[in-house]
Amino acid sequence: MNNVETTKDWWKEEVIYQVYPKSFNDSNDDGIGDLQGIREKLPYLKDLGITTLWICPIFTSPMVDNGYDIADFEGIDPQFGTMADFDELLADANQLGIKILLDLVINHTSDEHQWFQEALKDKHSKYRDYYIFKEGKERPNNWRSIFGGSVWEKVPGEDCYYLHVFDKRQPDLNWENPELRQEIYAMINRWLDKGIAGFRIDSITFIKKDQDYASLPADGVDGLVSCKHKTRNRPGIEIFLNELKRETFEKYNCVTVGEAPGVPYDEFSQFIGEDGYFSMIFDFHYADIDVESGSDWFKRTNWTTKEFKELLINSQEALQAAGWGANFIENHDQPRALSKLVKEGFQTAEAAAGIGVMYFFLRGTPFIYQGQELGMVNAQREQISQFDDISSIDNYHRSIQEGFSPEEAMNFVNLRSRDNSRTPMPWNNQQFGGFSKVAPWLEMTEEYPRVHASENSVLDMYKQMIALRQHSAISPILKTGSIRFLTDLPDNVLGYARELENDTVYVLTNLSPEEEAVTLADEIGEIYLNTHAINEPAGKEFTLLPYQSVLFN
Ligand code: GLC
Ligand code: CA
């Protein structure tokens, strides 16, 4: 390995940038982003100041779920380029001091994976047991998949069904099979031997299924029940996760970032404690504040900023008690943060910077999703045919099935669609935002002539945020200091102190569209960042403008 840092916890010092390869930059003008496109933009990323890139799946795939359906774990999808392109990208990135994380999708494969094809062809093949097949004329139970419909799909020509927690073209792997597990570990180690810095690990809390495969009472008019009660973070998963770590990650000084929905706070230490399964995990408890569950978009909540603040504080306190967190406000499954967290009419560049500062200096490793640093907003679409994302299409139909009108269904999908964050990156105000010379695979967000990377005040603020965390007199506090939340603030104002030995820096954010008066115990000292230049707080008593953030001591 050529890029491994010497300290055990080197990943606490990183700023990680997430690339969605289909939508980042198209180097050969076929309308689809690719590896050479990412390579062309390394100078942009270096200038931004990030230190690690997480690239969403680039492996051979029919792209039913845009690469989260892998047909060959060790092949590069031709849309994205070749293994030689990947090697060049890795070498150039490392040259610039940028590490690379890949996406590890090991809960399921594509139905086009050779293992699954063999399993379908011959029921006596050993590959049948690499997946979860159940014999019978009827579906074995009433579990609903995350992307809608039953988790069971019939095998053509047989009285037999296979299980898929996500799309029917993403059959779940059978982690109960030791031989399958060994094949996965060997694959992981080959990638780590190549010199990548680690992995973001997809849907990892789904690998253990309750072996009774029992039905539960329905929770929808379709007569089905969300499969997560029986397939997510179930007892016994600790055996698989410990083995996974022991056979792979532990042998390398790599970083592992678990996508671990469904883990209660009192189990965080098993996941991210001293001997935890992963370096860090994403916590979704406040990311999904606008919906009752990340997969039922028609169950919207009327959340308040006070609730958001409480969820965020609980999350940070649980992460701090157990280990280390992966902090984010956007990713390829979430709507744009500016649209979700900031009220309509207030979605300005300053507000984008305000919510950026709010999360960026929390204790943990900050993740930035492509375009977040530009202050992008959700796309507005009128017809379901304009969507690519399978879960948007499913949610549209399920909303109608649950009794909502087509207009209401479209509204739910516009608010939550995963396509909101998957629109092509606008590099400039030219046609197709300089992403490609031809119409891209997914429509641009319509505001790109105004919001793009060639001139952008949100981007300038992100550069300052990164520089402060990485290379300033207060970096040690911002990177490793503990976090303490301030009390005695208005409900709408979030405040925290980062503390290291005798040094403290503070962050205050007004999470609301109202002005908020704040009274501090001590006078503000030096201001390091202020997202609203027209209003410079001073003294002990001052007013914060809507969505204003300040970082000071
Ligand atoms: C994760 C990914 C998501 C994908 C799903 C199935 O949640 O982030 O994009 O659709 O897993 O792999
Ligand atoms: Ca391309």
From TrEMBL:
Family under the similarity heading: Belongs to the glycosyl hydrolase 13 family.
Domain Glycosyl hydrolase family 13 catalytic: 18-422
Keyword terms, alphabetized: Glycosidase, Hydrolase
Pfam families tied to this protein: Alpha-amylase (PF00128), SusG_C (PF23915)
Protein's UniProt name: Glucohydrolase
Entry annotated with the keyword Hydrolase: yes
InterPro entries linked to this entry: GH (IPR017853), GH13_cat_dom (IPR006047), Glyco_hydro_b (IPR013780), O16G_dom_2 (IPR045857), SusG-like_C (IPR056300)
